[in-house]
Each structure stands twice: as structure tokens, then as C-alpha cells.
Amino acid sequence: xxxxxxxxxxxxxxxxxxxxxxxxxxxxxxxxxxxxxxxxxxxxxxxxxxxxxxxxxxxxxxxxxxxxxxxxxxxxxxxxxxxxxxxxxxxxxxxxxxxxxxxxxxxxxxxxxxxxxxxxxxxxxxxxxxxxxxx
Length: 135
Fold this sequence. Notes:
There is one protein chain. This protein is of the alpha+beta class. The protein has a single domain (10-134), classed as Hotdog Thioesterase (Thiol Ester Dehydrase, Chain A), CATH 3.10.129. The protein has three helices and five strands; from the N terminus they run βαααββββ. A hairpin with a 2-residue loop joins β3 (95-106) and β4 (109-119). The chain is elongated and about 55 Å long. 23% of the residues are buried. The model has no long low-confidence stretch (mean pLDDT 97).
């Protein structure tokens, strides 16, 4: 990746994950120590008037982190933030995408700002944010 050849509008190679399933949610709960029952206990989820358990928001953020670190070394990451815009349900096929929206210099570094998001197979955005990468 070269700062001079990167252009606003360039896109990162998308990252598409397998459909969200209970095993993924259980593994993420253990890895993150987030055992909120809304993500792993169907009875609890139904009492909360949800049809079933659903993915942790931070799991989607982790997938976006993977998108970024597949594109650039993690040591180049300068900023990374998201907002949660929807629920990622079981069976959703999540695709993470990123687009260069700005090129700039700061602290003697050439950097790019990216808009990033996750969307399901229906095109519904579930997490949106941005990141800054030193190039």
C-alpha cells in the first residue's frame, strides 16, 4: 500500500464471514468474557421479547478489526471506532467493508481515514464506523 497511489474512494477487499451460529456466539462469549445471556441463552432472549439470541456488538467490531488488519499491519492502526446500528441475528452472513474517505498527514505520518461497516446478506448495515491507518 502506497500513500501516493491510494485514492479517496478506493475500497478494501471485503471480508465475508460464515453465517452467525450459536457456536460462534459461545466461543466469542468465552474469549471476551462477555457472558450476557441475551447472546447465549434462548430462554432469556425470548423473555426479553427477542426471537432468539443474537451476536455481541463487539463481535462485529472484532470482525471489522480483522478487515483492517488484513489490509494493514495492526501497528499502523491509529484510530478505530464504531456505532451499533442494528442487531446481527443468527444466520446472518456478515460482510465487512471499508472505503478510503480522506488522505492526510499528521504527526509526520501519511494517513488515510476509512469508513467501515458490517452489513448482512440483505444489505442492512449493522455496525458503522471509521478508522485511521498510517500508510
